[in-house]
Design brief:
Layout lengths: L6 E4 L10 H9 E15 L4 E5 L5 E9 L5 H12 L12 E10 L4 E9 L14 H11 L1
Antiparallel strand pairs: 1-4, 2-3, 2-4, 2-5, 5-6
Length: about 140
Amino acid sequence: MQEPVHQIFVYGSLRSGFQAPAFEYISRYFVLVSDARVKGHLYDLGEFPAALPTDDEAYLIGELYRIKNEEDFYWAMEQLDAYEGIHSDPEDGAFPYKRELATVYTTANETTTAWIYWYNEPIMNQPLIPSGDMLEYMRQKKNQG
């Protein structure tokens, strides 16, 4: 039987650099393990980013977190699922994400497994973020505008 995974990889508003209200939640229940990356393509949907998995050599840049207390994991993930709109009615305008396990590459050149939120709808004519780094992309947009 596979060991439960108590880690999460974040690449958007849940990253520390965004200072979003949801990050306060992350920092309360999770501890930063490492900066990290996951194979995927990142898109700018305006208000939020969308990531799609890929087998290409393209990466999402983000952070790997581990739950502080394993007993809190399922409750903590339910809160994040609600933030991401996982169990919401699509007619409510919830974000169309799904949570899956992914291989994560840490800065120490190690691999591990963590949960990630993938976008769950087709991407149509949205700008690709080639760097895979939403924070860097937002800084560049701010400096240009």
